[in-house]
Amino acid sequence: MHAREPFFGPAHHVHMKERPVLRVEESPAPSAAVDAVIPGAADAVIADAAIVARVRSGDSALFELLMRRYNRLLFRLARGIVREDDEARDVVQAAYVRAYYHLDQFRGPNGFKAWIARIAINEALGRVRRAPEIVEAEEHVLALPDFVEIEPENAASGRDVLRILQDAIDRLPEEFRQVFMLRGVEQLSIAETAELLGIKAATVKTRFYRARRMLQDLLQRKLDHVVRDTFPLGGHRCDAIVAVVLERIRRQ
């Protein structure tokens, strides 16, 4: 069974007065919304600025195209800050609603991605600042979960490895985690990452390198513990082999 995409969980609506219906989940394909408003648009990529202009002129249905275009980016960006799926979904939805009501502040024609990304970053950072828990950067790394806490027979499965990696990324220091989410997970370029985070390209390079080293060093140490438990043969499977052999011996 495939793991569900983060946006296909329970809805977490942002309560604002007189807001339009801005669905992040289970909405029709974006091409359907576009084709209904712009004939022949299915064969062309509509620029962000053009969509913004149409939304501001009254074609609010087209805002869905912008959401679908940037859902994954904003989710990963928010997830790298708040470190929790449901909270990240809330951040993205709040960012979209805020952006919708402030489209007049987008200067364009380029840079919509950076503009809405900055809204999501500010929303996520605001929630983190309001959170009661403050942990030092060094504690993030030292608190990473042990592989040995996972059931030995499931430790090598893809799902568990993915979960372990996600837990490790979650506990990177924030400035390294944000860069790694954009460069390593979202696969953005150095220039794009620098633009979205508002930092220098050289800083992106340094933080990404250090984030990878942190993850590699930690995962290598943890793998040394779990390798001994791979290809297990215990419990009922061991009992079954013993039972079969004894039965054959008795029949001889």
Explain this structure to me?
With 252 residues, the protein is an all-alpha fold. It has helices at residues 30-37, 48-56, 63-82, 85-101, 112-130, 137-142, 158-170, 174-185, 190-197, 201-226, 235-251. The chain has two domains: 6-130, Rna Polymerase Sigma Factor, Chain: A, CATH 1.10.1740.10; 137-251, Arc Repressor Mutant, subunit A (Orthogonal Bundle), CATH 1.10.10. It contains eleven helices and no strands. The longest helix is centred in the last third of the chain and has 26 residues, at 201-226. It is elongated.
Assign the CATH superfamily of the largest domain. Answer: RNA polymerase sigma factor, region 2, helix turn helix motif
CATH topology of the largest domain, by name, is Rna Polymerase Sigma Factor, Chain: A
Largest sheet: none
Give the proportion of residues in helices: 55-70%
Domain module tally: 2
Number of contiguous helices? 11
Quaternary structure of the protein: single chain
Contiguous low-pLDDT stretches (5 residues minimum) are 1-37, 39-43, 134-156
State the total count of DSSP E strands: 0
Q: Helix and strand string, N-terminal first?
A: HHHHHHHHHHH
CATH class of the largest domain: Mainly Alpha
